[in-house]
Amino acid sequence: MIQTKNIEFRYDNRVVLKYPDISCTVEKPLLITGKSGCGKSTLLHIVAGLTPNFKGEVWIQQTGIHLLPPKKLDAFRGKHIGIVFQKPHFIASISVLENIELAAFFGSGIRKTKQAIELMQQLSIDHLAKKLPQAVSVGELQRVAIARALMNLPQLIIADEPTSSLDDLHANIVANLLAEQANKANAALIIVTHDERLKTIFNNHIQFQ
Amino acid sequence: MIVTLLFKNLKFRLANTLLSIVLLAFGTGIISLLLLVEKQINEKLNNDLEGIDLVVGAKGSPLQLILSAVYQLDAPTGNIPLAEANKIGKHPLVLSTIPLAYGDSYAGYRIVGTTENYLKKYNATLAIGTLFTNSFEVVIGSQLASKENLQVGSTFTSTHGLSKEGGTAHTTQRYKVVGILKPTNSVIDQLIITSIESVWEIHDEHETKENHQHEEDNHKEEKSITALLVTYRSKMAMMLLPRQINENTKLQAASPIIEINRLTNLIGLGIKTLQIIAWGIIAISGLSIFISLYSRLQERKYELALMRSLGAKKWTLAFIMFGESITLCVIGCLVGFCISRLGLWFLHNYSMNNYHMAFNQLFLTKEEYFLFVTTIIVGFAAAIIPSLQTLKISISKTLSHV
Lengths: 209, 402
Description:
The complex is a heterodimer of chains A (209) and B (402). With 209 residues, chain A is of the alpha/beta class. In chain A, 34% of the residues lie in helices and 23% in strands. Chain A has 6 helices and 10 strands; from the N terminus they run ββββαββαβαααβαββ. In chain A, a hairpin with a 2-residue loop joins strand 5 (54-60) and strand 6. In chain B, helix 11 (314-354) packs antiparallel against helix 12. Chain A binds chain B through residues 41-42, 45, 48, 50-51, 53, 71, 74-75, 77-79, 83, 85-87, 89-94, 98, 101-103, 105-107, 111, 148, and chain B through 1-2, 4-5, 8-9, 11-13, 302-303, 306-314, 316, 394-397, 399-400, 402.
């Protein structure tokens, strides 16, 4: 169960945005849509613990991440939150497999090569293992990003515009993969997007103005 | 994993990495080579000097006298009468003397007529064969033996003069090798040593051919040697003896320590200048590492923020920065040490052919450890600002502005 209460985004100590409370469970993935610039990505960063500039409460299972000091927050995020970014960015100098292992390493201190390869097989990207990220197509990289987010069996997966750079076919595949894999890993899923196509897949849906 | 990441990052920016390494390697290579050469020259100079307090020879340049008599590097200043030299040997302040008669050579290696005391001074012992007992028997230094492929029983003719080419050959008498010395790491390794009488006899015969008529009148009295190595009985001699000889006789007395200090000061000046240039190169390579880390920071910002979002600690990222910089410095420095060994090897071959001077040093010297540590400090310093910048990265901002 993921829950937020009275979230306000602050910048230079001024309240810039107020958010409605949201909640999400493993069974019901949450889709947040809205025009670009309405602050939906910011909410995502708040929930993921990527920014300290907010007031309010964020609960991930029993942990209130608004209560965690920065170091513990880093560790908690690495271990329990998987993030899929809009643009599939990776460390350019290491292979796809090593990029996935890196998530395990920062999250738990172990490379977990075996799990990484299994995960890649499930997402049918195991043939990319040895390639550098720049040699892999955008659609495939988005799958790699999903694999990376799943690596530590997180409690929460958040995806920021995971499909906006993909065509209809791949958008569909990636969205379904996300839902399916999150469910398999017993992780709650929050997707933020302006991609109207996803509304047909996820019915737990909040629209920001 | 971090180490893998570190090396792959360096490999990924191969051009930058190579530039930094090459700069560092040249800087440390030059410094290390200079250190080695200076150290070896000093060692060599001092080693050969051991136990020689004063050199007495013909009037001329004192440095030339020392270089020729102690190191067998320069031409002799001239000859001195044996009778005069014997007088010095009997002086109460003198403990012992060693006469040297030289001026001939074989294949560029000098033939020195002397006594067994000369060998004892350098702790030279026979590897094979016997010492010279009769005229025209010689023992040879270890390097000479291996270079010229001479064995016990080999014979050769000498050349008047010290150069490899030219000079009149003494064709009638052949020298015979009776012994080969163990390596001493001193000047002896490159010398042909024989009895002083051999040198006299070969020149008697030489002169006999040219001036038959004067032979009878002045031969026996005019026996001469080239130089005399003197060991003092007491420190007092240092004050008195050189002045007595220089003022009261036709001979010249030169103190090796004073002359060699003068020489090393001159060499030292050149080495200092080169060292300053080389430190400059190291500073530039530090700057180049700094610039490449700093300019890449902008493009790497996303990677760093990404790693933070994956749970990496701030200090882990700073550690990667320091790691990359210091790795470059370590590699550069090690390559530099290899360069200096290679340089020394070339120098060794060159000076073996031209001066019969050997250089060798494989292991790191104390000064090189210091150099190594300094380079690492340079690497550390170059990474300070870039890694402080990584600490300031805001994950959220970086990730949303792509």
